[in-house]
Specification:
Rossmann fold, DUF1152 domain-containing protein, alpha/beta
């Protein structure tokens, strides 16, 4: 019998040591947790990392680059403090998992690439999966709305520049970037283009009966309780969709006053060969020289001034 399993999983068959990294900051690493638990169940060695929005103190990193901070429960953050990586590390330990989540500082491509190189060496990584909470990582630069491209583009370029590991991208939360002005028609067009080039690796649903999905939901609920003022809009929307909620359903007070469209598409992973996505980025070359996130902002601003912005198209369904 021929399998209907998405090509994404065939790509991972020979992977042994996998790094799953949130690419856009905040809670993006949580969007990788279903993959983390699924791949661990297959016997793979899996580590978590996240581009971090938290102000990270200076400490001894051992063999790691200055731009990487190993986050463990020993750091002792204050209750309620915004530090998703720390609260996730605490929750992981309660599940019998290793408690280290590697936080990547808010930097540009050059230091972030060095950070990833150090992690790859330190952990002997053969495969990197960047995870986007949302879908704006596929915006190439001339769309009517780019969402929040700074961190996504920095991660995309830094990881694509690495030599050695296989590089994949997974997006979770179709529709959540509408809040940031993204037209999802642009995202579907990008996916169609990547399909033609052989870089689209399929989409698949997270359903509430799956153990890795249940672990993901548990992690979200536990960490939201630790940081009640900072509940993740993306992950709470995804969890609502997985649970079968629909329409203007609000799981957190942070979204009150806006109209939501929670729907089953939010619970899908959309997966890609990362290099093909990176090569679509129209401002890839100037990104290579960036050192700070301010540099990245200038690159994007200059690019937007130089190109013709395509008119917004809404999905005709």
């Amino acid at each position: 019998m021929h399998s209907l399993q998405p090509p994404f999983f065939r790509e991972l068959q020979d992977s042994r040591r996998v790094l799953i990294a949130g690419m856009g900051g905040g809670f993006d690493v949580f969007c990788g947790l279903p993959l983390y638990f699924a791949l661990k169940a297959e016997g793979k060695d899996v580590t978590l990392a996240n581009y971090s929005f938290t102000s990270l103190g200076l400490g001894l990193n051992g063999p790691l680059s200055h731009a990487v901070v190993p986050v463990t429960p020993a750091l002792n953050a204050q209750p309620g403090e915004y530090f998703p990586e720390y609260w996730l590390s605490r929750w992981l330990v309660t599940q019998g998992e290793p408690g280290t989540v590697y936080a990547l500082r808010k930097v540009g491509v050059q230091p972030l690439k060095s950070a990833y190189e150090a992690l790859v060496r330190h952990l002997d990584i053969d495969t990197i999966i960047l995870v986007d909470g949302g879908t704006d990582s596929l915006m190439r630069g001339d769309e009517s709305g780019l969402g929040t491209p700074h961190e996504d583009a920095t991660s995309l370029v830094a990881v694509n520049e690495l030599r050695g590991p296989k590089k994949l991208l997974a997006c979770l939360g179709f529709g959540v970037d509408h809040f940031h002005g993204v037209s999802h028609a642009d995202y579907l067009e990008a996916t169609a283009e990547l399909t033609r080039s052989g870089a689209y690796l399929g989409a698949f649903s997270l359903t509430p009966d799956l153990p890795p999905v249940q672990k993901y939901k548990d992690a979200c609920e536990a960490v939201f309780q630790m940081m009640p003022r900072y509940t993740s809009i993306v992950n709470s929307s995804v969890v609502s969709a997985i649970d079968g909620q629909y329409g203007d359903h609000h799981a957190t007070s942070r979204t009150h006053g806006s109209e939501l469209w929670i729907n089953p598409l939010m619970g899908l992973y959309w997966t890609y060969h990362l290099p093909a996505v990176a090569h679509r980025l129209q401002y890839y070359a100037p990104m290579l020289d960036t050192v700070t996130l301010s540099d990245v902002g200038l690159v994007i601003e200059c690019h937007r001034e130089e190109v013709t912005i395509r008119p917004r198209v809404d999905i005709p369904v």
